[in-house]
């Protein structure tokens, strides 16, 4: 089984701010049994110190995550946003970015985030593909696209 499942893909969500969005995804991962109860707290604390907003041309993404010790089983939760919300830029931390896609990583293997990020970067650099993902209204179709796109990611679970 891959890192992404249809039950953790949420198209066209609306959130007041990045904290609300991160809490939503962390709670979905927790309900699926993928993370420990303190996962959100760890993700939020990390986001404050090491922002995860990534400029990707016209469509910006965020890749929040926490240390492996907060994860029971590796998974990725994804949401596209009906309206962008602000995240701090990971490279220029005083700069805010309007983010339209959030890919929350829950990776159980130490240093596994690096491998997942390397594999996901092709997606983040493809503005046309990102635009297609944002235009998708159906969770099943969005999942199918992401599953195919991220199929090469394996962490030897």
Brief description of this entry?
It is built from 5 helices and 5 strands. With 157 residues, the protein is α/β, with parallel strands linked by helices.
Please give a structural write-up.
Keywords: Sugar transport, Transport. Residues 2-149 form the PTS EIIA type-2 domain. Helices cover 37% and strands 25% of the residues. It is α/β, with parallel strands linked by helices and 157 residues long. It has one domain (4-149): Mannitol-specific EII, Chain A, CATH 3.40.930.10. Strands 1-4-5-3-2 form a five-stranded mixed beta sheet. The chain is globular, with a radius of gyration of 14 Å. The relative contact order is 0.21.
Features:
single chain; 157 residues; alpha/beta; Mannitol-specific EII, Chain A; five-stranded mixed beta sheet; 5 strands; 25% strand; sugar transport; transport; PTS_EIIA_type-2_dom; PTS_SugarTrans_NitroReg
Layout of strands and helices, then pairs:
Layout: E1 4-13, H1 18-31, H2 39-49, E2 53-54, E3 60-62, E4 75-88, E5 96-106, H3 112-124, H4 127-135, H5 139-149
Parallel strand pairs: 1-4, 3-5
Antiparallel strand pairs: 2-3, 4-5
Helix pairs in contact: 1-2
Quick one: CATH superfamily?
Mannitol-specific EII, Chain A
Termini, distance in Å?
A: 9 Å
Unreliable runs = none
Which assembly state applies to the chains in this document?
single chain
Give, in spatial order, the strands making up the sheet with the most strands.
1-4-5-3-2
């Amino acid at each position: 089984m891959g890192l992404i499942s249809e039950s953790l893909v949420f198209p066209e969500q609306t959130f007041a701010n990045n904290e609300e969005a991160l809490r939503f995804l962390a709670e979905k991962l927790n309900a699926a049994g993928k993370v420990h109860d303190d996962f959100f707290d760890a993700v939020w604390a990390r986001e404050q110190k090491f922002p995860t907003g990534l400029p990707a041309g016209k469509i910006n993404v965020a890749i929040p995550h926490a240390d492996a010790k907060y994860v029971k089983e590796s998974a990725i939760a994804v949401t596209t946003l009906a309206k962008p919300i602000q995240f701090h830029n990971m490279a220029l931390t005083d700069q805010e970015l309007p983010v339209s896609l959030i890919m929350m990583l829950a990776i159980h293997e130490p240093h596994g985030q690096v491998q997942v990020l390397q594999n996901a970067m092709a997606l983040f650099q493809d503005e046309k593909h990102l635009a297609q993902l944002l235009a998708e209204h159906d969770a099943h179709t969005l999942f199918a696209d992401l599953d195919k796109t991220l199929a090469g990611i394996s962490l030897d679970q």
